[in-house]
Amino acid sequence: xxxSVIIFPGSNCDRDMDVALKKFGxxxxxxxxxxxVIPKSDLVVLPGxxxxxxxxxxxxxxxxxxxxxxxxxxxxxxxxxxxxCNGFQILIETGxxxxxxxxxxxxxxxxxxxxxxxxxxxxxxxxxxxxxxxxLHIAHNDGNYFCSQDDLKxxxxxxxxxxxxxxxxxxxxxxxxxxxxxxxxxxxxxxxKNILGMMPHPERVIDNCLSSNDGSYFFENLxxxxx
Amino acid sequence: MKIKVIxxxxxxxxxxxxxxxxxxxxSMNFIDVSExxxxxxxxxxxxxxxxxxxKKNVEDMCKxxxxxxxxxxxxxx
Lengths: 227, 77
Known about the structure:
The structure holds two protein chains of two kinds. Chain A is α/β, with parallel strands linked by helices. Chain A has a single domain, classed as 3-Layer(aba) Sandwich (Rossmann fold), CATH 3.40.50. Chain A contains five helices and eleven strands, in the order βαββαβαββββαβββα. In chain A, strand 3, helix 2 and strand 4 (80-84) form a beta-alpha-beta unit. Chain A is globular, with a radius of gyration of 16 Å. Chain B has a single domain, classed as Phosphoribosylformylglycinamidine synthase subunit PurS (Mth169, Chain: A). Chain B has two helices and three strands. Chain B has a three-stranded antiparallel β-sheet, covered by helices on one side. Chain B is elongated. Chain A binds chain B through residues 56-57, 60, 64, 93, 99-100, 102-107, 144, 146-148, 180, and chain B through 13-17, 20, 65-66, 68, 70-71.
């Protein structure tokens, strides 16, 4: 399986993602934002970081970069696209996924492990993961997910809420909401569920020598669905 | 010609920075302050000569880049 990770000026999780994808068997290529064409890929990843220094709004400048048109074209043809953290913010700014990411509720940059529950129905990202509660990592200043009530309802009806923050027992509540996101939303799909945007970083927790190994389930599951 | 634009968070959208500013003002004894909304201000220098054309162009910029219409409103001054 072939993957491409797009590098923007200010991306800083691009190489972590490269390491993770290769570890689980992807043939990964790094693609510069100024290129116009994505190499032949089965998966495109927009990595975390601070593209363009978060100027204007996080992800807004990267969403207008040269490579984005071919990312949109790839996504519209049903190609798998993941945006992690700043990559999620970029997906939001391109309009490929619904909503907005506001400043964290308590105005703090949050960098810690959190627990999430993933939506396993009708998607290739989480469907066969056996574990119900995943321990992943977040590191962001603007991860407070927001959308209109109408959009929220239509996403709920269509099973587009991908990941929600919970506690270690799987309880989804205000106490397990790190950043003020509505409905504890940590990630969403587009309507067809080929695009996933989420704040937590699976690529940071892919080995037992790290603080968690739960990111491994994400990559293993994704790859198993692509073979 | 210079066109000025203000972008503000929409009503109902949480504005944690505005809230923090309000609380600080209250703690500085500006007790009358009940709400602060923080926005952005742009000055756009354009080569267009016609004000109507220039404002129409800036409106397009607001929709495409300067504001995120999911969470923000814009006003061309």
